[in-house]
Design a protein that fits this description.
Helix 2 runs parallel beside helix 3 and helix 7 runs antiparallel to helix 11. By secondary structure, this protein is α/β, with parallel strands linked by helices.
Length: about 290
Amino acid sequence: MAQEIKSLIHNPEEYHRKMQILYKSVTYDEHNVIKKVIGEAVSDTKCHTIRVLSVGSGNGQREHVLITLLSERFPEVFYTGVDPAEEELRQFNTFSVSKKAQKQWENVEFEFHNETIEDYIEKADKGEVAGKFHIIVALQSVYHFTDPVTTIKQLYDMLEDGGVLVNLMQSGDIGKLAMEIGKHYYDPKNWFIDAEWVEEKMRERIPDAKITTVIQPQTCKINACFDEQSSEGNDLLDFITQIPNFRKTIPKEIKDEIMESLNNKKRIDPNGDIFINWDAGYLLIRKEEKKLH
């Protein structure tokens, strides 16, 4: 039986600090991939004002490529960012103001909500906030939904006909590792799941939706994870497992099992560097246009 723990997300400052270590270790250009995947997802969208909902928008580190893309393609962009991390949203707001001062994003109207997506959906159901969007993006935030399957279905219901919901999640070996950790631990604020698990559940929950998954291969350099004296390696291991102070807090038998699994998934290049497949799974759920009879 899985044991409840408080995962890394309970300390947002540490979560984001250790995430930066991950960014230095991952070997692909996420921004260009986001631009390509989302650009293709909205290629057939025809409207004057495109309405966008970003779930877990953070400080805009991922979002700026998306916003620039949409601002160049559409006359007007109405962008709603939802995130429970107040400081991250404050930074995003400051960033958006600076962009406008530089004569960029002048056709983008921003609205930020410092709350969980579940709270936002409740307000939308009451008509208190915008409730219909052409595109909804959840970039690495599905894990933190109270109930991922239910919340994704609710977000799907908020799409305009022809709209698309884009969920970016871990896939491949790193996703499998998360699922293995989930056999031992659970946290209501951090689900140990991967893109394949979510796709299977959503096909069952929304059988009429058009669901596709785009896998972007990538790797993460993890040499330091096997050096117990490396503080950066320990921080990276914390982010990989989402368990704070992983080496010190996890019982030895479980820690050894997880490290063995990580070791079995590793790849060693000719230079002796150690990598793990950290594939990105873009799960696209599109609401079909209603047909007139």
